[in-house]
Each structure stands twice: as C-alpha cells, then as structure tokens.
Amino acid sequence: xxxxxxxxxxxxxxxxxxxxxxAASGRTIRSSAMxxxxxxxxxxxxxxxxxxxxxxxxxxxxSVKGRFTISRDNAKNLVYxxxxxxxxxxxxxxxxxxxxxxxxxxxxxGTQVTVSS
Length: 117
Hints:
Number of strands: 11
C-alpha cells in the first residue's frame, strides 16, 4: 500500500504562487495516474488536476486552467502542483491521490493553502 504525503501549503497573498509536492512511499506510483483535489470549508471535494503515469498527458479543472500546472518525477516518486496567480477562492485543503483501476484509491492527508485578498 502506498503512503502519500503532501507538503508546500501555506499562506500567500492573492496573485502569489505556491508549489505543492506529493511524496509517495511504500510502493511506486510510476505506473499510476495521479491527481490533485481540493476541499474548501463547507464545500465538497473537487477535482483540480491529473497527470498520466508517464507525465505526457494532463487535465485540469476549468477554474485552474492556465494558472496551475501538474507534473511528476517518477524517479523520485513525486508529484507536483505549481499554482500561480492564486486567488482567494483557491483557499482549500489540497490532496493528492493515486489512481488504481480507474478510481482514486489512495489519498494523502492534505495540505492547507490559504490565499489572502
């Protein structure tokens, strides 16, 4: 079973940038698609971005397209989310997840991102 640990969250002003990292241990993630999700207070968890196992294909929620970039380093078992031009509405707990058999089966504990206006 894989363990996923997110890091890189914090407090940033609107317009600023953060880079989130997701470190996997216990099992390789190189053969799995990976995703980032977020959950704001009082809201349901929502999809943010996903990357294929090779890193060659990515997808994004419309709300972050053009501002966020997902990437991965399979040699280091890491997945990243570069977030630029952050907005207050991006404030949420961000989670990474590993896709197994077409569903996101393993999740990290999350990292808080707070964007002040």
